[in-house]
Specification:
heterodimer; A: 251 residues; alpha/beta; Rossmann fold; 6-stranded mixed beta sheet; 8 helices; 10 strands; 34% helix; globular; B: 423 residues; mainly alpha; abc type-2 transporter like fold; 2 domains; 4-stranded mixed beta sheet; 14 helices; 4 strands; 5% strand
């Protein structure tokens, strides 16, 4: 365990029941404090499994995981308040309003009521949702749902924010806004682990990226370093295709 | 505790917005209990009301025929006709009318029945007082009861035995009167048969007072607890549905990345649905006490142990909630849980005696019914309503339901742990 890293995994292995091949096969990742870190991988590379293990949602067969210097094998009780998780699915209650959703999620982080209400107001304002605070989630557009989904993960001002494809299925305007806000939050000191399929997004906002394939990290560094390392590549997407191949992955 | 309050708040809001679920949990059982009680009551009323069609031909012009006629009228069971279009039928015509199912029963009292009996008694008394050793040959008296062949055996057996019993009583009283008259004719000391009747031996039929056995509840006593239990178990559709929806939507996973344990998550649902089930019980009992009498039914008598009722309601709720949570964790999709949940509750209700009381089931089905948690609950409620049972008497049923609920809860936790963590 190195104190420079907000999240560190060492040689993680995980094989699902009934599968003959491992989903994670020696997965080692180091995410420095204060970074906006992009984890980029083709479908079925094992990134969701890795994130679920880091968040304590899945067991692993072997290896080590530290979050903010604490091993998750010692229990998640003290780790959970440190990070915020924004899942790929719109993990909200569709029949509740945006405000009710945020009040519940914030309340579960133990935020005092006056502070919670202030945080909800600030974040709804920041993400341009203040006017829709009392509208039901099932009446929101895809972009609005994504933004509420993000707010729910950052209400408690976490030290580490983990986002699983936060811009999937949103229009260009909403995507731009989400990326801008992530940069803003990162500038305020929050370490961000950002999982995405969109390589130009990662090149645009990430301070460091890692490519993952077949359950392991194949390369890690800043976007500039990665491009520079491979002379034939002019952008991050070209490096990614070079390292992970052009074969289509369905799962 | 503050965090747990937010989980309760979440489950309360989700339930409040689930209008279809609320209708299913409150309106459906309320309608069912009224409807089913009325249906059963009307079936019972066919037997009680003066609605069994009877064709009575009384050719006897004496006291015995009249007395039998009066007794039949007073019984209140029959709708009596004495002629067909103004013509008194013969015995053959009467038989044809009953055979054609226009009447359930036909009674033919032949001519001179009273006179024949009177003559028999006179002959008997005179012979008895003359010191003769051999009794005289008596003329037989025969009146005929015709039964519609399509009538259920159990039904006409009941009617015929009632008729026979009443007729024999009248015959006995008449014979006694005639004997007294004849004795007074030849005896210097007058005797009286007044106050002496065929009611000396009273057959007192009672329900056996062994708890849970041989109880025959009226439709209100049966249907109110039965449909309350059905309603309570029907919450599993909403409960398991909410668990599966949250799992499918991802909010369940999100909750588990927060400082919120799986036990707290389940407990919150259990508490909210416990309130629902207790409200259901309250509503159904109020319907039994106040609403059913509007429809001419009896008001529900709650027995004398409110504590026993509360304990039964709580135990049944725990069983239903545990079952709902187990289904929510075992089923993969909402479709699976709603179909399996609904069918399993209907089966539990059917074998548990909710639709058809267990006392009319065959012995084999009665044994099978004991496997249903609804049977345990229903037995407990009937003990309280019919036999004034207290807490001690219904404890075995309560423990069985609590045990069932806790086993389901444990299955749910194990299933979730294995599925979620893939261990």
């Amino acid at each position: 365990m190195d104190s420079r890293y907000a999240i560190e995994t060492e040689n993680l292995r995980k094989t699902y029941k009934g599968k003959t091949y491992p989903t994670l096969d020696g997965f080692s990742l180091k995410i420095p404090y204060g970074s906006l870190f992009g984890l980029l991988a083709p479908n079925g590379a094992g990134k969701t499994t890795a994130i679920n293990i880091i968040c304590g949602l899945r067991k692993y067969d072997s290896g080590r995981v530290w979050v903010d210097g604490r091993s998750i094998s010692d229990g998640m009780k003290h780790i959970r308040p440190l990070f915020g998780f924004v899942p790929q699915d719109i993990a909200l209650f569709p029949t509740l309003t945006a405000y009710e959703n945020l009040k519940i999620f914030g309340g579960l982080y133990g935020i005092e009521k006056p502070l919670l209400e202030k945080r909800i107001d600030q974040l709804l304002e920041l993400f341009d949702l203040a006017e829709s605070r009392h509208s039901y989630i099932n009446r929101f557009s895809g972009g609005m749902k994504r933004r509420v989904n993000m707010i729910a993960g950052m209400l408690h001002a976490p030290k580490i924010l983990i986002l699983d494809e936060p811009t999937v299925g949103v229009d260009a305007q909403s995507r731009r806004m989400i990326l801008e806000k992530l940069l803003e939050i990162n500038r305020q000191g929050t370490t961000i682990l950002f999982i995405s399929h969109y390589l130009e997004e990662a090149q645009q906002i990430c301070s460091e990226v890692a490519f993952m394939d077949n359950g392991t990290i194949v390369s890690q560094g800043s976007p500039e370093e990665m491009i520079a390392k491979h002379n034939s590549c002019s952008n991050l997407e070209a490096v990614y295709l070079l390292l992970t191949g052009k074969r289509i992955r369905d799962n | 505790m503050r965090k747990f309050r937010y989980l309760l708040y979440k489950d309360y809001l989700l339930l409040k917005r689930d209008i279809a679920g609320l209708l299913l949990m409150f309106l459906m059982p309320a309608v069912l209990v009224v409807l089913m009680t009325l249906l059963q009551e009307s079936t019972y009323r066919v037997l009680k009301d003066a609605s069994v069609p009877l064709l009575l031909v009384n050719k006897d012009e004496g006291d015995l025929g009249r007395a039998i006629e009066e007794e039949i009228e007073l019984s209140g069971i029959f709708k009596i006709d004495r002629d067909i279009k103004g013509v008194v039928p013969t015995q053959e015509q009467l038989e044809r009318e009953v055979a054609g199912s226009r009447y359930t029963l036909g009674i033919f009292i032949p001519e001179n029945t009273t006179e024949t009996i009177r003559k028999n008694v006179v002959k008997y008394v005179v012979t008895a007082f003359s010191g003769a050793e051999e009794l005289p040959a008596l003329d037989s008296v025969e009146f005929v009861i015709f039964v519609d062949p399509t009538t259920k055996v159990s039904f006409y057996s009941y009617i015929v035995s009632t008729l026979k019993e009443r007729t024999q009583k009248i015959e006995f009283e008449y014979i006694l009167k005639e004997v007294t008259k004849q004795v007074n004719n030849i005896s210097p000391i007058p005797i009286s048969s007044a106050g002496f009747s065929g009611d000396q031996v009273v057959v007192d039929i009672r329900s056996a007072r062994l708890l849970g056995k041989n109880m025959v509840p009226n439709p209100v006593q049966h249907n109110v607890p039965a449909w309350s239990l059905f309603a309570v178990f029907f919450i599993i559709i909403s409960l398991s549905g909410s668990i599966i929806r949250e799992r499918e939507e991802g909010s369940f996973s999100r909750l588990l990345t927060m400082p919120c344990s799986y036990t707290e998550y389940l407990l919150s649902k259990a508490v909210v649905f416990l309130v629902v089930t207790l409200l259901q019980f309250g509503l159904m009992l109020l319907i039994g006490i106040f609403v059913l009498p509007w429809f001419g039914l009896e008001s529900l008598n709650l027995g004398s142990s409110p504590l026993a009722l509360i304990l039964l309601a709580l135990s049944a709720s725990v069983a239903a909630i545990g079952y709902g949570i187990a289904i929510g964790n075992i089923a993969n999709t909402f479709h699976q849980s709603s179909v399996f949940g609904a069918i399993s509750v209907v089966i539990m209700a059917a074998i548990g005696g909710v639709w058809v009381p267990t006392f009319v089931m065959s012995e084999t089905l009665r044994q099978i019914s004991k496997l249903s948690p609804m049977y345990w609950g229903l037995s407990g409620f009937l003990d309280v309503f019919l036999l004034d049972a207290g807490v001690k008497a219904i404890l075995p049923e309560c423990l069985a339901m609590l045990f069932f609920g806790l086993v389901c809860f444990a299955i749910a936790v194990i299933f979730n742990y294995r599925r979620r963590l893939d261990v």
